[in-house]
Amino acid sequence: MGPHHLDGLFNPTSVAVFGASGSATSVGGLVYANLVQSEFRGPVYAINPKYKRVLERRCYARIADVKEQVGVAIIASPAATVPGILHECGEKGIRNAVILSAGFGEAGEQGLKAQQEVLDVARRNSIRFIGPNCVGLARPWLGFNASFLGSGIPKGNIALVSQSGALCSAIADWAGPHDLGLSALVSIGNAVDIGFGEALSFLSGDPETEAILLYVEGISQARSFISELRAAARLKPVIVLKAGRHGKSSSAARTHTGALMGSNAAFEAALERAGAVQAHTFGQLFAAAEILSAHHRTSGNRLAIVTNGGGAGVLASDQAEELRIDLCKPGDKTLDRLDAVLPPYWSRSNPLDILGDATAEAYREAIEACLDDSTFDGLLVMLTPQAMTDPEAVARTMVEAVAGNRSKPVLACWMGEASVAGARRILSSSGIPDFRVPEKAVEAFSSLARHELNQRLALETPGPQLFSDDHDVAGARMIIDAALLDDRTMLSETESKAVMKAFGIPVNISIAADSAADAVVAAGTIGFPVVMKIDSPQISHKSDVGGVWTNLLSAADVRDAFVTMTRRAAELRPDATINGVTLERMVSADHVRELLVGVDRDPVFGPVIVFGAGGTMVEILQDSAVALPPLTSVLAGRLINRTRVSRLLDAFRSQPAADRQAIVEVLLRISDLVTELPQVMSLDINPLFASPDGAIAVDARITVERAVAGTEPDNHLAVAPYPRHLVEHGFLPDGTSITIRPIRPEDAQSEQAFVRKLSPRARQSRFMQAIHELTPRMLAEFTQIDYSREMALVAVVGKGSGATQVGVARYVMNPDGKSCEFAIVVSDEIQKQGIGSRLMNALIRSARQHGLGLMEGMVLAGNQPMLTLMDELGFSQRPSEDDPETVVVERSL
User: Fold this and answer.
1) Among candidate residues 593, 610, 528, the one with its CA nearest the CA of residue 561
2) What pTM, to 2 d.p., does this model score?
């Protein structure tokens, strides 16, 4: 496995500063001074034709004058000079740059043109760069500070990636006094080339980084962002602060769904999908940084609070309830233990108020009791300065009491200022996160608890898929194409329901009628009672114009309703085209809940699925949640559970429970629909009737646009969908049918069963260790893969309920972005049928499509059948330098 493709940028061995000077007020002067005065051991070259020497060091007129090889170019010269400098760097062989210069995309139309020129020149010269318009890059543990921040940046284990230079400056200034440090400070500025995704890709594998903070103002490469964020969050806590959360939506709402989509909804859905933790304020971001730097992790969200002030405990309790932190009651042993040593009036509840005259010894007893109590996952110790309490003595006692603790995070909150300053220094210097106010301390614990929850949720695997996904995609596309040929972007209700039915979504079939006579015929065809709805592409909310009549029982009712409805709609909406009406059978079901399921198109993250309470008051109730497709049954279930209406789906009083599985299946089919049909801009099912007998779409609306010519079929999605194009069907030599296809999350049970059936020798050959079955984490990672960065292909024999997995091959892209590492195992029960060859050839084709150039793997030296297969497939073989028991196999793609 080679180094990360950005290793030369983040771990430089030499650097040149373009625009270097001796001025303490210029960007080039500050950056150059920071580099030469830092602990960076590599050479630092000043490039500026105006000077012969800068800070008593030689200054070069051009980079070509430097004889030695240079790793990174730091560019701090005027915007107009940047393209020429990049060209010179390319000729010199410099492949990494940090462009500090301003005057690009942030400066208007001319700046955007200049920015594109910079990108074009960089690409022609194979240069990767951070910026422009940024404050720079720092790697404190290397002594590398290529920024113009005025203060030093302390070494630590937290990485910061920010679009705001001001935030970089604030955190760098704040870290030192709080005994915190950074492993990396990355100001990406306009993020024209290297953005959040690639920065996360490097930092997730960086051994110096244990946690990552992101400050985000906007995302331009959604799929890369989510993919790398997900990969990083599986390894390390990632805390994200998003600016502009409450800005106006980017487009006017065209449907109920659009009205429920705010500017931040899609971003939060992306974070939820990736498993990152969102901070909502700078304070929360700082709080998270403080506790993460102390190597703390938690196994749950049950917090104990020890305090000598009831009011302080109430403040902490309020914040804990706001953040859904569990302040559970101490265990009986803890109560008995503290009853024996504390005054009789202590609270005997959580918060543990040990009273205003608490001594250091009383604190010790309470702290140790809470650490020993398995009821709690974390501990917050609070102190308010009172006459009987010595803040510094309590701080020293606390340091001693938690010295051996490794299982629970411990936080401190010494309230006040002058009288507790010394105590705070004791706590901070001992590595105990210290906060000035209770709210920030609770927020810090909450960030740990949410990270832990995300990790547990990531291990959830869906059960086997219970329905067929053989949708009539071609038929749905024909309907959409016909509408677009008529220059229509709004499908009629009849067309909308036909598209949904093509994907197996239960719908109440509609018949269109443009006259009273046709309406009577349609009603007679459907059968009474019927529902009549106005048919107009401009009228989104039919009930607003009296456009929905229910329970029409006769031909006369239908005729009169048609006349009245169309006339009234024309009067109330003279701007609308009234095509007539649609008629459908009156749905009669007991115990119905009215729900909304919809899709809206976010300008950054593409299609977003919305679920919530439906009906005519949907915008007023504002009870909805959103998720990014593609969905699994687990993700669909979480989407439902994030709404208040989810509780109405359960049984209550005399009302039986609605069929949740039917709702989940509707969501999964909607997910398939928007995945397969990039032309769909918005979709609205309101209401979706859910009852104990199932779910049915009663009212439906779809808007479409032409797909952009020449784009990949799934480019409209922020999360790489299931790659159906890789599915292959065939037969084994004995006539058994075989399917080779990408693995999916629903394969978790079959994957586990497959590994269990492998012989000990086969498991040893595949995993290089003796295991009986996959752990929950392994199972989740093996089946819930990111198709944009890895691939796993399973071989399945048989069909339907009798299908059995008999092999799996997978690869994961290496950090260099050019090669991948593969593994393969085939069932012991089916041998010499060519399954291994089929899997490997399919895997090689997939890797080529990913643009990879090299495939490599490790084979046990004693596994002769696998070595023979590798030889037949054209893989070279050589002994491993690290392990004589293994053979390295490689093939150029």
Assistant:
1) 528
2) 0.87
Residues of the chain with pLDDT under 50: 248-262
Contact between residue 493 and residue 547 where contact means Cβ atoms under 8 Å apart: no
CB neighbourhood size of 256 (10 A): 27
In angstroms, the CA 166 to CA 268 distance is 24
Total residues belonging to the chain: 893
**Among the listed residues 276, 76, 239, the one whose alpha carbon sits nearest the alpha carbon of residue 162:** 239
- DSSP bridge partners of 307: 353
Burial class (CB in 10 A: 0-12, 13-18, 19+), 567: exposed
Beta bridge partners of 512: 582
Cβ atoms of 449 and 325 within 8 Å: the answer is yes
Q: What is the pLDDT of residue 619?
A: 66
3-class SS string, 627-674: ECCCCCHHHHHHHHHCCCHHHHHCCECCECCCCHHHHHHHHHHHHHHH
Amino acid at 430: S
What whole-number distance in Å separates Cα of residue 323 and Cα of residue 78? Answer: 47
Report the alpha-carbon distance of residue 596 to residue 612 in Å, rounded: 5
What the block records as the tokens of 672 is 């398939």
> How many CB atoms are located within 10 Å of the residue 725 CB?
11
Lookup result for tokens 């269109």: 512
Closest-CA residue to 486 (of 579, 412, 608): 579
Residues 6 or more apart from 488 whose CB is under 8 A from it? 537
In sequence order, the 6+-apart residues with CB closer than 8 A to the CB of 297 are 237, 409, 448, 451, 452
Query: What token pair was written down for 576?
Result: 């609308």
Cβ(158)–Cβ(209) under 8 Å?
yes
Secondary structure letter of residue 795 according to DSSP: E
C-alpha–C-alpha distance, residues 238 and 199, integer Å: 13
Q: How many other CB atoms are found less than 10 A from the CB of residue 817?
A: 18
How is 156-213 classified by DSSP, letter by letter? Answer: EEEEEEES-HHHHHHHHHHHGGGT--EEEEEE-TT-SSS-HHHHHHHHHT-TT-SEEE
510 neighbors 532 (Cβ within 8 angstroms): no
Cα 595 to the center of its chain, rounded Å:
26
Q: What distance in Å separates the CA atoms of residue 808 and residue 741, rounded to the nearest whole number?
A: 10
For residue 654, the model assigns a pLDDT of 81
Q: What amino acid occupies position 321?
A: E
Taking the alpha carbons at both ends of the chain, their separation in whole angstroms is 16
Q: What is the gyration radius of the CA atoms in the chain, in angstroms? A: 32
Residue 469 sits at φ, ψ, to 5 deg, of -110, 25
Q: Nearest 5°: phi and psi at 688?
A: -100, 115
Report residue 166 CA to chain centroid gap. 25
User: Residue 168 contacts by C-beta under 8 Å, 6 or more apart in sequence?
Assistant: 135, 147, 149, 160, 162, 185, 187
Question: What amino acid is encoded at 882 in this protein?
Answer: D
Q: Find how far residue 666's CA is from the centre of its chain.
A: 23
Distance CA 547, CA 563 (A): 12
Q: Quick one: CA torsion of 250, 251, 257, 262, rounded to 10 degrees?
A: 20
pLDDT of residue 540: 78
pLDDT reported for residue 99:
97
Bond preceding residue 865 cis, omega within 30 of 0: no
- Residue pair 419/385 in contact by the 8 Å Cβ criterion: yes
Instruction: Report how far residue 185's alpha carbon sits from residue 173's, in angstroms, rounded to the nearest whole number.
Output: 12
Angle formed at CA 806 by CA 802 and CA 811, multiple of 5 degrees = 130
